[in-house]
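Below is a filled-in request sheet from our internal design queue. Each sheet records the structural input a requester submitted and the sequence that came back. We keep these sheets so that new team members can see what a complete request looks like end to end.

REQUESTER: design group, bay 2
PRIORITY: normal
MODE: inverse folding
CHAIN LENGTH: 219
BACKBONE (tokenized):
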């Protein structure tokens, strides 16, 4: 279980999350809905060990997180992957798409051959893999970011408005690939969106949609 327990986040003196708790169990999709600005991305960054909360606890499979960002224990950090809303802000513009996908494998000193299979599954052809971000569409770049997120076989995948700026067919393709990964690996997915219709479609019957606003008034 990936768990945030009573998490508070403030920027300067502005409190955006006030003792929020959320559980992301393995194996299912958990939906997280809420209007723009309510703190969904902040919670995503906390759960991905990228933002240290002012208060509260985060644990990954029972282990409390004590260090954050680059100081976080690699064994915990690599267990949670985050897919961002805007892929252009999430990649190094000098990288080719293949570099984007292999980056976590290189950092973890793991064999790079998995990258080609991931690229193929994401519908990225070899001619696209040698291009840089400015030479591909948003949808193609987001496919590379999803492949990168899955490279180290994370136990939890957080999708923060992953498909908001993409057309319906790219959106359906990315969701289908993540569903393949979830079923095959038993990973837990946290799907974050203001689009509750998308969450309804994605989460189906074996999952729950939580409304962040409701969560924080309850805690
Ligand atoms: N690094 C930051 N510094 C200062 N304020 C921030 C920072 N990041 C977010 N905020 C503010 O915190 C609040 C919550 O932002 P956050 O991005 O977490 O919300 P969100 O629900 O994901 O919004 P959206 O759906 O529009 O992406 C907003 O008022 C935002 O302006």
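RETURNED SEQUENCE:
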């Amino acid at each position: 279980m990936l768990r945030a327990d009573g998490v508070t986040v403030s920027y300067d003196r502005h409190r955006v999350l006030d003792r929020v708790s959320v559980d992301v169990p393995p194996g299912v999709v958990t939906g997280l809905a809420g209007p723009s600005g309510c703190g969904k991305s902040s919670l995503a960054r906390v759960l991905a060990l990228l933002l240290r909360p002012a208060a509260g606890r985060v644990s990954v499979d029972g282990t409390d997180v004590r260090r954050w960002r680059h100081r976080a224990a690699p064994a915990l950090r690599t267990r949670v992957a985050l897919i961002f809303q805007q892929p252009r802000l999430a990649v190094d513009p000098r990288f080719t798409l293949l570099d984007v996908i292999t980056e976590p494998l290189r950092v973890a000193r793991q064999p790079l051959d998995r990258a080609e299979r991931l690229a193929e599954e994401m519908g990225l052809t070899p001619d696209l893999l040698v291009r840089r971000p400015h030479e591909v569409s948003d949808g193609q770049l987001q496919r590379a970011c999803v492949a990168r997120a899955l490279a180290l076989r994370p136990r939890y995948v957080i999708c923060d408005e992953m498909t908001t700026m993409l057309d319906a067919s790219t959106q359906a393709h990315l969701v289908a690939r993540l569903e393949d990964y979830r079923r095959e690996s038993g990973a837990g997915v946290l799907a974050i969106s203001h689009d509750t219709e998308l969450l309804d479609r994605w989460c189906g019957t074996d999952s729950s949609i939580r409304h962040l606003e409701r969560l924080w008034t309850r805690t």
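SHEET NOTES:
- The pocket of adenosine-5'-triphosphate is lined by residues 11, 16, 34, 36-42, 194 (CB under 6 Å).
- The CA atoms of residues 8 and 18 lie 5 Å apart.
FILED BY: M.R.
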